[in-house]
Design goal:
disordered N terminus, 10 strands, 12 helices, globular, binds iron/sulfur cluster, binds S-adenosylmethionine, binds 6-(5-methyl-2-OXO-imidazolidin-4-yl)-hexanoic acid, single chain
Length: 335
């Protein structure tokens, strides 16, 4: 390889100087203006920001495990785990540490660096938190980064999890404030912001994103991204989920989102939250390799890795390893 080409293909450490992304606060108008850019312009801006902060060839692998499945009292219209929808998901009790250790070890052996435990709770009780703290200690002891998503937290609960070694707490805003009520009525937007504030003040890193493809407008997608980007500081980790349509949920027959609109959402998240891990999350199985590759070009640098999300499917690990190989990309090293 010629040295010029070699140089062109080598990752350069971030250089000082302006990037095209102005820092927040972000108005919905400004975020919508990014969405409205011609696709090549938007991709160029996203790439420029991405390369200023990350090696664009590296993707983080995070594995999910549903440690307590189904039977949830909430009414999130997209969710297969809500007890009120007939989706065929069986409710289960919280898993024991020994079972979780086996799953986490398997994830680590397959190449994951972050392990995220999800529970279908509205809000955990203090005795649930004690049990999850034990799961966190178990996973942490294997040398994995830990993440949990358990619903709304009360004062003190995030501190307990932090003390057990929790690195990230996932709690999504899910959609724009003016669309949210169409999807969830059993908890308010402000409840979510309150939980995020508790997580932040306990010193646990914030993983917060949303779902697109639920029938929202482009302006409402911009509204979601503006809310995320205006959290101060912005979340360290931003999962962007494409709705997985599950039979039995009210959103089962929702029309597909244009895949380019999904890619745009990733690009806009990257530009407005330059140092976040933007995770190409639910919906990859339905997406096709080409769209996924565009998402990586748009600045996505994390995926859920493993054959299952919480209750629905995800590409198998061999397919993901092969996809990155075909793109000349690699798994990100542990933090
Ligand atoms: N019960 C907790 C809560 O709601 O915060 C934690 C688990 S909940 C399943 C975590 C996130 O998964 C939701 O906030 C939502 O963004 C995402 N999710 C759930 N069902 C989904 C679906 N069908 N398609 C895409 N994302 C989904
Ligand atoms: C997130 O934003 N997406 C993940 C994780 N955080 C917990 C969950 C996706 C769930 C998709 C539907 C299911 O598998 O049940
Ligand atoms: Fe329950 Fe979370 Fe599903 Fe909502 S998204 S129904 S809170 S498990």
């Amino acid at each position: 390889m010629s040295s010029v080409l070699e140089q062109a293909l080598t990752f350069h450490a971030p250089r000082p100087g302006p990037t095209p992304a102005a820092q927040g606060p972000w108005s919905v108008d400004a975020v919508e203006a990014l969405f409205n850019l011609p696709f090549p312009e938007l991709m160029h801006q996203a790439q420029t920001v991405h390369r200023a902060h990350f090696d664009p060839t590296r993707v983080e692998f995070a594995t999910l495990l549903s440690v307590k499945t189904g039977g949830c009292p909430e009414d999130c219209n997209y969710c297969p785990q809500a007890a009120r929808f007939d989706t065929g998901v069986e409710a289960s009790k919280l898993m024991e540490p020994a079972e979780v250790r086996i799953a986490a070890q398997r994830a680590k052996d397959a190449g994951a660096t972050r392990f995220c435990m999800g529970a279908a709770w509205r809000s955990p009780k203090d005795r649930d938190i004690e049990k999850v703290a034990e799961l966190v200690r178990t996973v942490k002891a294997l040398g994995l980064e830990t993440c949990a998503t358990l619903g709304m937290l009360e004062d003190g609960q995030a501190q307990t999890l932090q003390g057990a070694g929790l690195d990230y707490y996932n709690h999504n805003l899910d959609s724009a404030p003016d669309f949210y009520g169409n999807v969830i009525t059993t908890r308010q937007y402000q409840d979510r912001l309150d939980t995020l504030a508790r997580v932040r003040s306990a010193g646990v890193k914030v993983c917060c994103g949303g779902i697109v493809g639920m029938g929202e407008t482009r302006r409402q997608r911009a509204g979601l991204v503006a809310e995320l980007a205006n959290l101060t500081p912005h979340p360290e980790s931003v999962p962007i989920n494409n709705l997985v349509k599950v039979e039995g949920t009210p959103l089962a027959d929702q029309a597909d989102l244009d895949p380019f609109e999904f890619v745009r959402t990733i690009a806009v998240a990257r530009i407005t939250m330059p140092t976040a891990r933007v995770r190409l999350s639910a919906g990859r199985q339905q997406m096709g390799d080409g769209v996924q590759a565009l998402c990586f070009l748009a600045g996505a640098n994390s995926i859920f890795y493993g054959d299952k999300l919480l209750t629905t499917g995800n590409p198998d690990t061999e397919a993901d390893v092969r996809l990155l190989e075909r793109l000349g990309m690699r798994r990100a090293a542990p933090a």
